[in-house]
Amino acid sequence: MSNVKITGFGDDLTINGTRLGDLSPSAHEEIELNNGGQNYKPLENVVVSHVQDSSTLICRKPDPSNVQAYIEEEVLDGLCCYSAVNQGQLNKTIVDAVVKHLTEEKLPTVPRSIRHKYMSGLLLAITGITEMDRAVPKVAGVEAPELLFKLSRRWGYQKKEIPAEEAIVVAANGNFHGRSMTAISLSDDPDSRTDFGPFVPGIELVPFNDIDTLQNLFERKGDRIASFMVEPIQGEAGVIVPDEDYFTKVSALCKQHNILLAMDEVQTGFGRTGANFAHQLFGVKPDIMGCGKAAGGGILPVSFVAGSDEVIGTLTPGSEGSTFGGYPLGAVAAIFAIKVLEDEKLAENARIRGAQLMNHFEDIMNEFPDKIKEVRGKGLLTAFEMHNEPHLDGHKVSVNLMNNGVYAKETHHSTVRLAPALTIEAWQIDNLAEAIRKVVKEL
């Protein structure tokens, strides 16, 4: 018989005598160390309590006078849950729609074996915003690139007539498509791959933003290549922005060799880069694209793949599925996430506030050229890279920014990524940049 007793709610939520409101940040960390898998390394000495507004978190930090207690402070969210909350925390339009749906429509979940009315709405909204023929709803972000991979192979065999078991999917070095088995097979990150082999076969990697190497591979093996699967901007790699003409050339090469252009827009989509989808910045249209994160408006996990009839039309009953893919409640969240993207002009605000933030970054780099090597970004997907010196530690910068009221997170040793909500205001950008300048100065 199980031994668990759960009572209360919020800070009064108590599990087997442990009341959450009584836990200090160190106590939370101890429980995670003892009871959880150690596959993440959260910032030390801070626990998010609740949300104050669209860009502000209320965080619990150790009480200077009592390590077993905590104090609460406002923190500007400079990471936006890795672009999952583009519409801002607790966006009223999305929250109201979800609450109204649960209280009035009363239709949370049904299986795909019976239709529900919101599936039609979701498919119309997705194909409308992406300008694609068809869409397949999913749930977790990693399910989108997983399906991009499967569709690439199926199209390759059924439409391109690649010999059985010989299809190749090409990906870029430094990519991040998630941490499923397919995603890490596509990856070259040792932290993701160590002791998880053998890996999915039929994958080749080329350097990102290197059109000559891609062309050479296409010329040698193009008859067996099903797709080039790529992020339009590499976020996890440190916000690596390609040359302006890179994807124009990539698209032309793909058409020349009858190879699908499959784009992973999980992190770059939904206005993040100053366009609804980042591929639009480069004037190309992929054959298939995957979205997630902000597709659920920061309220529920939602992802999808959208693409041409020729590619998605290869799916047949039983060939692909997801228990919660397109479920009614998620569909409502996604529909209104798209509505907010359009109605609140989030891509436009990302361009404006992103330009403001990049100007601040340029000023900081000019002030501290011995510390800041490069600043990069499109819209509000931005990063600054420090010189590769031991004292220029991205984690130390993240911790010190938290101490100055800003949440950011390093990627790799010397790069810090900033991706705040697309609803952020000018004064908040100024405050964020001033905190960065202060922390960099003190390094």
In short:
With 443 residues, this protein is α/β, with parallel strands linked by helices. 36% of the residues lie in helices and 20% in strands.
Task: Quickly give the CATH architecture of the largest domain.
Answer: 3-Layer(aba) Sandwich
Strand order of the largest sheet: 7-13-12-11-10-8-9
Q: Count every helix, treating DSSP H or I runs of 4 or more residues as helices.
A: 14
Report strand %: 15-25%
Count of distinct structural domains: 3
CATH superfamily name of the largest domain? Type I PLP-dependent aspartate aminotransferase-like (Major domain)
Outline type: globular
Major beta-sheet overview: 7 strands, mixed
Instruction: Tell me the number of strands.
Output: 18
| Radius of gyration (Å) | 23 Å
Helix content: 25-40%
What is the SS-derived class?
Answer: alpha/beta
CATH class (first level) name of the largest domain: Alpha Beta
Low-confidence stretches: none
Task: Determine the N-to-C terminus distance.
Answer: 55 Å
- Mean pLDDT across the residues is 97
Query: What is the CATH T-level topology of the largest domain?
Result: Aspartate Aminotransferase, domain 2
Structure description:
The protein has 443 residues and is of the alpha/beta class. It folds into three domains: 6-77, no CATH class; 92-343, Type I PLP-dependent aspartate aminotransferase-like (Major domain) (Aspartate Aminotransferase, domain 2); 346-442, Aspartate Aminotransferase, domain 1, CATH 3.90.1150. 36% of the residues lie in helices and 20% in strands. It is built from 14 helices and 18 strands. The chain has helices spanning 25-35, 80-83, 92-105, 117-130, 143-158, 181-186, 190-193, 211-221, 246-256, 309-312, 328-343, 346-367, 394-403, 426-442, and strands at 6-7, 14-15, 18-19, 47-53, 56-63, 66-77, 134-138, 168-172, 203-206, 225-230, 260-264, 288-291, 303-307, 372-378, 381-386, 406-407, 409-411, 415-418. The chain has a seven-stranded mixed beta sheet, sandwiched between helices. A four-stranded mixed beta sheet has the order 4-5-6-16. β2 and β3 form a beta hairpin. The longest helix has 22 residues, at 346-367. The protein starts with 5 loop residues before the first strand and ends with a helix. The relative contact order is 0.14.
